[in-house]
Amino acid sequence: MTTPNKTPPGADPKQLERTGTVREIGSQAVWSLSSCKPGFGVDQLRDDNLETYWQSDGSQPHLVNIQFRRKTTVKTLCIYADYKSDESYTPSKISVRVGNNFHNLQEIRQLELVEPSGWIHVPLTDNHKKPTRTFMIQIAVLANHQNGRDTHMRQIKIYTPVEESSIAESQLFFL
Q1: 143 pairs with which residues across the strands?
Q2: How far is 94 from 56, CA to CA, in rounded Å?
Q3: How many whole angstroms separate alpha carbon 111 and alpha carbon 4?
């Protein structure tokens, strides 16, 4: 019997931003949660501090809903998880869904995480590596390690590709 390999951590998403090919757009969205313990909500999920976290408070699935005011191009979702700190609160199965609203969400990725420690990069692209255009992203925690009930997520970042033309224009500005 083989044990599944641990989920390898991805690079710090700030390194992605430094390449100039993507930018973080989470601040452009309205965030909501299926539940949270007081003091462990959206603010902690988005505060750029890996020591803080969202903690759910209810039955599964635990949901993070990210809604944009206009149809938005999204390329990558980054989630920070830390099994060593969170143990049974650490997600082990996550579904990522996109759509126009709550009523037409379609699952585009399902992840099985094994004792994750670090950033998990989730491509939000089609089979041709083309970014997704959507009004809404929903992250559903379907299961936790050790059959834990509530979940912890430490950070979530959403990235859009930087268009070639805007890079060229910004370089012209400095000439």
Answers
A1: 93
A2: 14
A3: 13
Q: Which residues of 121-149 are buried (b: 16+ CB within 10 A; e: fewer)?
A: bbebbeeeeebbebbbbbbbbbebbeebe
What is the Cα–Cα distance from 62 to 54, expressed in whole angstroms? 11
Q: Mind listing the pLDDT tens digit for each residue in 50-109?
A: 999 999 999 999 999 999 999 999 999 999 999 999 999 999 999 999 999 999 999 999
Write out the two tokens for 135.
């009004």
Domains of the chain: 13-161 (2.60.120.260)
Distance CA 43, CA 155 (A): 10
pTM metric for this prediction = 0.89
Cis preceding-peptide flag for 61 (omega within 30 of 0): yes
SS3 61: coil
Q: Going by C-beta distance under 8 Å and a sequence separation of 6 or more, which residues neighbour residue 59? A: 149
Q: Show the tokens assigned to 168.
A: 């060229």
d(CA 97, CA 110): 9
Helix H or strand E segment including 160 = strand 155-161
